[in-house]
Amino acid sequence: MKKNLIITGGIFHPFSETSDTLSEILNTLGYDSEITIDLEKGIKDINNFDLITFNALRWRMLNHEKYIPYLDEWQFSLSVSSRNILDSYLKNGGAMIAFHTSSICFDDWDGWSKLLGGKWNWDKSFHPPLGTVEVNPIKNHFLNNNLDKFEIEDEVYHNLHLEPESEPFLLAKTRETNEEHIVGWTYKYEDGKVVYNALGHDAKSLLQPEMVEIIKKSVEWVSGENNA
After folding, report:
1. N or C: at which end does the chain have fewer Cβ atoms within 10 angstroms?
2. C-alpha span between 14 and 21 (Å, rounded)
């Protein structure tokens, strides 16, 4: 089997549950997953893996006093050496899929947006409470094929920053705001390929049939099985 590294961990989200679920889904595609909350060690060994799955919420946590109780365990700034390893991995043909809070990670590293294809903007980005979300696949994007509009229980990230080369493939809106926002994109970073999906708050979301199909198509594309 091919090898996949799931990088995970953080606050306010069931990361153990979602990472186990992602591992199960990817196992059906022929990937044996290793799950780690040790970002530095995981990235150091990144070249031993065929696929990287990012499912984490790790940043400096300086934005609000509500984070203070969690600082000792979860506050994080990625080392320069790990930044360089991750950058090199993707530049040289690496494959990465990333979910939900991944766009919030590494708030002190501008280069993360250049690798992921976008990021959370602390001045503009937010999300309404977890609830019913209407997801609208962008029809002319190769990742969607015949995927139709569907509903899911999740959060809609509003006003994410996208790199100019990112290609959106998912739009979503909540009943609360009724504003459609980009929640998924594909992205090429030199020879590497990345898919970011802002959905996937919990296992229920990830296991929705449409989401499973999107995850499978995402892996096919970043791994080169889909030549689009």
Report:
1. C
2. 11
CA distance 86 to 92: 10
Please return the burial class of 133, using the count of CB atoms within 10 Å of its CB with bins 0-12, 13-18 and 19+.
buried
Cβ neighbours of 177 (radius 10 Å)? 13
pLDDT digits (tens, 9 = 90+) for 77-132: 999 999 999 999 999 999 999 999 999 999 999 999 999 999 999 999 999 999 99
pLDDT lower than 50: segments of the chain: none
E strands, 93-178, where?
95-99, 118-119, 131-137, 150-154, 161-162, 167-174
In sequence order, which residues have a C-beta less than 8 Å from that of residue 16 and are 6 or more positions away? 8
Buried b vs exposed e over 64-97: b needs ≥16 C-beta within 10 Å? Answer: eeebeeeeeebebebeeebbebbbebbeeebbbb
- With beta carbons less than 8 A apart as the criterion, state whether 144 and 178 touch: no
The pair phi, psi for residue 214, each rounded to 5°, is: -65, -45
- How far apart are the C-alpha atoms of 176 and 164, rounded to whole Å? 29
Q: Note the pTM of the prediction, 2 decimals.
A: 0.97
Question: How far is 3 from 95, CA to CA, in rounded Å?
Answer: 11
